[in-house]
Amino acid sequence: MFLFFLHVIVLRIMTKKKISFLPLSVAVKCALFGNIPLLLTSWFLALRLNASVYGTIITILYVLIVYNALGYSYCHIFNMGETARRIRILYELNLAGRFRYDKLADKYGVKNMIDVRLERLIDMRQISKHKGNFVLESLLLYRIGMVVLNWGFFLKYNAHLRQSSKK
């Protein structure tokens, strides 16, 4: 809930001050910023409860993992609302009444989809274009992707261990 309200407030301030922004980028930054008050609050509560150092660390790690998993999910849900092609196609179909497949394929062809995604990565300063080649400028989204990929491997590995131990 904190992330949602933080995101809404930041977007309103940026809109009011006419600061240009990418909505998804703001969502990601709000999710990352939310770790600071969460960490401080968790630490303060652990000290008030006189928890052991080990218990405090484990609790804080758990809270941060859960919060960041929810933040990751929030960003994806927000992103779906921002970029969903299916909704756009349905909207345009509703406006036009009908259209042919070839017209749709021309508008949403593979080249167009790649161009849109590359332009978005450039706008987010994740990549840049130099002499016709794309170059990584930031590893932020890459690292987030690697965390998610490794988390998937971890979950599959643990599921495999549980299956093996039942046999």
Question: What does this protein structure show overall?
Answer:
This protein is mostly helical and 167 residues long. The protein has 8 helices and 2 strands; from the N terminus they run αααααααββα. It has helices at residues 2-16, 23-33, 35-48, 53-83, 85-96, 101-107, 110-123, 140-166; strands at residues 127-130, 133-136. The radius of gyration is 21 Å and the shape is extended.
How confident is the prediction overall: mean pLDDT? 79
Tally of alpha and pi helices:
8
Helix content: over 70%
Order of strands across the widest beta sheet? 1-2
The beta-strand count equals: 2
The rounded distance between the terminal residues' Cα atoms is 42 Å
| Oligomer status | single chain
User: How much beta, percentage-wise?
Assistant: under 5%
Largest sheet: number of strands, sense, barrel closure: 2 strands, antiparallel
Q: What's the structural blueprint in terms of helices and strands?
A:
Elements: H1 2-16, H2 23-33, H3 35-48, H4 53-83, H5 85-96, H6 101-107, H7 110-123, E1 127-130, E2 133-136, H8 140-166
Antiparallel strand pairs: 1-2
Helix pairs in contact: 1-2, 2-4, 3-4
